[in-house]
Design goal:
This protein is mostly helical. The chain has 12 helices and 8 strands. The strands form 4 sheets. A two-stranded antiparallel ribbon has the order 1-2. Strand 1 and strand 2 form a beta hairpin. The longest helix is centred in the middle third of the chain and has 23 residues.
Length: about 325
């Protein structure tokens, strides 16, 4: 083959994963999935011969499709299926998760949380274990071997402490990735929720209130136009309650009384403008918490499923400690 021996298996593992994942779709379309690996080898050879490795490849994908359709029909159908998946259906995160499925921590007190290309390394540091360097080094080595580049400038290190005397972040051991120190922060926004090192969610509350105050202006305008209460209630549920209750099961019980009252005051103002009673945040929290608990109970593979244990009577659950 015209490419180097170190690149002979380039993409083979990914092709096998994609073939396995889309096997029902491919079989329903009459694709011979057993021929895809061999056709992928032929496709690589043709692309490298055409100058792909030297950066002189100027053909478009439709041209490649027409050129090699008779020699590599099955693997090209797989690529066509991937390219025609609408991005709005969030197809890329599942594919990325599938590709990084083998990235798992082998350390007992470390856990990897992955969503698409956002990864969090959680480490329980206690006793003699004061740093997550072994687990982090394992993750960095996996990324290097998988040809994935870590963006160290966007990587942050946050120490959550449950001690009465907060640990000084400057006194923490510096985390270094590829010779670059990782910035230690006290707050970090992950998947739309701002976490702080005390898990008080004060910054998250401020962000929620800021967004709600912006939308309160629109609600008041609707009221001034004489819009019916039912329409304003729909607007409130879609543009205000949706923001105030986003990931509420994560942060509601950690809020201080002052922050709870501030959020509840916003719901009271909305209720007066709409002219109808609205659900309190506590009601929304209990409803969503019960719904989430029911999902965990019916999903034995969930990481929190072992935490739910029945009393000897079999009618009530034990209190989670």
């Amino acid at each position: 083959l015209p490419f180097k021996s170190t690149s002979q298996d380039f993409g083979d593992e990914e092709i096998n994963k994609l073939t396995s994942h889309f096997r029902p779709l491919l079989l329903s379309a009459g694709v011979d999935v057993d021929l895809i690996p061999d056709q992928w080898t032929i496709l690589k050879a043709e692309l490298y011969t055409a100058g792909f490795s030297q950066g002189t490849f100027e053909k478009t994908w439709p041209t490649v499709n027409r050129m090699l359709r008779h020699r590599c029909p099955d693997v090209l159908y797989l690529f066509d299926a991937l390219l025609t998946i609408p991005a709005r259906l969030c197809a890329l995160p599942p594919l990325y998760i599938l590709d990084t499925d083998d990235c798992r921590s082998t350390h007992p007190n470390c856990h990897l949380v992955k969503y698409a290309d956002d990864t969090v390394l959680l480490s329980l540091l206690s006793g003699s274990s004061q740093h997550h360097r072994p687990a982090l080094q394992e993750f960095v080595e996996w990324c290097d071997s998988s040809k994935l580049e870590l963006n160290v400038s966007k990587t942050k290190d946050m120490v959550v402490t449950f001690c009465r005397r907060p640990r000084d972040p400057a006194a923490s051991v510096t985390t270094i990735i590829h010779g670059t120190p990782v910035e230690v922060v006290e707050e970090y926004k992950y998947l739309g929720t701002t976490f702080d090192n005390l898990l008080k969610f004060s910054a998250n509350t401020e962000e929620i209130l800021r967004k709600c105050h912006q939308r309160l202006y629109l609600l008041r305008k609707l009221n001034s136009f004489g819009v019916s209460s039912s329409v304003m209630m729909t607007f409130y549920c879609a543009f205000l309650e949706n923001i105030m209750t986003f990931s509420i099961t994560c942060w509601f019980y950690s809020l201080s009384l002052q922050n709870r009252n501030r959020l509840q005051h916003t719901t009271s103002v909305c209720s007066k403008i709409v002219g109808l009673p609205v659900r309190t945040l506590a009601q929304v929290f209990y409803q969503q918490a019960l719904r989430q608990a029911a999902k965990i109970l019916h999903n034995p593979s969930h990481i929190l499923h072992p935490a739910f244990q029945w009393l000897p009577s079999g009618r009530r659950l034990c209190c989670i400690s």
